[in-house]
């Protein structure tokens, strides 16, 4: 939420239209990708997921990105950027935005990113059904099914991206005499080596051939 709102503040307030992608490319390249056709820098799927999660969380509270950014003026509140409000302890939240902070935290606290995505997706689908097909035309529309499928795809991408980062960090941490060194000769380490080689081949070849 903090990171997502920070990015929205940059995109909506501090940067001009079309500048967010290039800014990411220079300052946060890990969260930037190039469009497959135009090659214009744009948010990565991971960052896009964070921002969509932030937007959905706020909308579930009856709030908009613009509305929240208008209330969370960093200079007036003594914080570095709007998203920092979610990193403060409850006792440190400025009185003027305590209700806003509590309302949003009541929605997201204690939930994983995956559970929030699932919750928002369900609410979104229920909302679409109420406004959706005409009487006598049961079920979700093709557009709704496409949207739901894309949201599920983005959830999978986000989950696997985070897991990939976690595994990469663990492998680097274990790659010394005190880590894998103590497992030399074991079946488990041999199995791990085979698994890594399989994954390495898949990645380097750009997928299964």
Q: Would you summarize the structure shown here?
A:
The protein has 209 residues and is mostly helical.
User: Helix and strand string, N-terminal first?
Assistant: HHEEHHHHHHH
Helix content: 55-70%
> Total number of helical segments?
9
In terms of DSSP E residues, the strand content is under 5%
Which spans of ≥5 residues are poorly predicted at pLDDT below 50?
129-137
Distance from first to last alpha carbon: 39 Å
Count of beta strands? 2
Rounded radius of gyration (Å): 22 Å
What is the 3D shape? globular
Mean of all residue-level pLDDT scores: 83
Question: How many strands, what sense, and barrel or not for the largest sheet?
Answer: 2 strands, antiparallel
The strand line-up of the biggest sheet is 1-2
- Structural class, from helix and strand content? mainly alpha
Report on the architecture of this protein.
It is built from nine helices and two strands. The protein has 209 residues and is an all-alpha fold. Among the domains are: 108 residues, no CATH class; 35 residues, no CATH class. A two-stranded antiparallel sheet has the order 1-2. A hairpin with a 6-residue loop joins strand 1 and strand 2. Helix 1 crosses helix 3 and helix 3 packs across helix 7. It is globular. The two termini are 39 Å apart. About 4% of the residues have low confidence.
């Amino acid at each position: 939420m903090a990171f997502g709102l920070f990015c929205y503040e940059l995109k909506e307030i501090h940067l001009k239209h079309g500048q967010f992608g290039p800014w990411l490319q220079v300052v946060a390249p890990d969260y930037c990708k190039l469009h497959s056709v135009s090659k214009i820098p744009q948010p990565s799927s991971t960052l896009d997921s964070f921002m969509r999660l932030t937007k959905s969380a706020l909308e579930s509270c009856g709030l908009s990105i613009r509305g929240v950014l208008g209330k969370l003026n960093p200079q007036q509140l003594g914080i570095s950027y709007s998203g920092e409000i979610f990193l403060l302890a409850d006792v440190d939240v400025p009185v003027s935005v305590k209700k806003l902070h509590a309302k949003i935290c009541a929605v997201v606290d204690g939930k994983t990113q995956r559970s929030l995505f699932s919750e928002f997706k369900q609410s979104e689908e229920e909302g679409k059904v109420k406004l959706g097909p005409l009487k006598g035309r049961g079920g979700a529309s093709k557009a709704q099914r496409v949207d739901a499928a894309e949201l599920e795809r983005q959830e999978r991408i986000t989950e696997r991206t985070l897991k990939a980062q976690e595994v990469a960090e663990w492998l680097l941490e274990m790659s010394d005499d005190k880590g894998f060194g103590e497992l030399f000769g074991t079946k488990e380490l041999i199995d791990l080596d085979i698994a890594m080689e399989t994954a390495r081949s898949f990645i380097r070849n750009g997928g299964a051939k």
